[in-house]
Amino acid sequence: KITYLDLADNAFAGSVPSEIGSLTKITYLDLGSNNFTASVPSEIGSLTLLNVLHLGSNGFTGSVSIEILLLPSFTGSTLNNTNVTTSLSSAIVLLLSKRYQWKLDFYNKG
């Protein structure tokens, strides 16, 4: 079983395969600093043990599924240097930040 997967800095391009959702035991996933495009795969929202997700420095577009941000074990994500947005209102962010300790980094977002 794979629990930790670091694929950063590999010059991967295109979209992340939907099969990423079959990594049901994964707790750490780093896809940062590649050349991924398209949207962040919604299948990541089925990774219920995921703690940390790094997606920064890619060409991702669109929005992050709220299912990803509400994963039970989720503690943080980096989305810096991407064109990704989130549809969470500030009120929801405030409620979540009181219940969970997590980090969502949009630093230097393109």
Automatic annotation (TrEMBL):
Cellular component GO terms held in the UniProt record: membrane
Compartment annotation: Membrane
InterPro entries: Leu-rich_rpt, LRR_dom_sf
Keyword line: Glycoprotein, Leucine-rich repeat, Membrane, Receptor, Repeat, Signal, Transmembrane, Transmembrane helix
Membrane topology: Single-pass membrane protein
Main location: membrane
Superkingdom, taxonomy of origin: Eukaryota
Entry protein name: Uncharacterized protein
Species of the source: Pseudo-nitzschia australis
